[in-house]
Amino acid sequence: MNRRLANDPLASSWAAGLRGSLRGYARAHLPEAMIPAHFVVLPELPKLPNGKVDRGSLPRPTAEESTETAYVAPRTPVETQLARIWQDLLGLPKVGVETSFFDLGGDSLTVLQMAAQVRDAYGVRLDLRRMFENPVVAQLARMVGSQIDPQVSGDSNPRGVHTEAMLADSVLPADIAPGPDSLPPSSGPYRHVLLTGGTGYTGAFLLRELLDRSTATVHVLVRAADPGQARTRVLDNLTEYGLLREGDAERIAGVPGDTGRPYLGTTRQDYRALAETVETVIHNAAISSWIVPYAKIKPVNVFGALEVLRLACDTRVKPVHFVSTIGVYPGDQGERRWDEERLTETQDVVGGYRQSKWVADTLMLQARERGVPTHVYRLGAVAGSQTTGACSTDTFINHLLKGCIQLGAYLDYDLLIDLVPVDYCAAAVARIALGGGHPEPVLNVPGAGSTSMNDIFQLVVDHGYPLRKLGYQDWYRELVAAVERGEENELAVYLPLFGEDRPADEVGYPGARPVFGTANLQAALAGSGIAPRPVDRGLFDLYLDYFVATGFLPAPPQS
Question: Taking the model in full, what pTM does it have?
Answer without folding.
Answer: 0.77
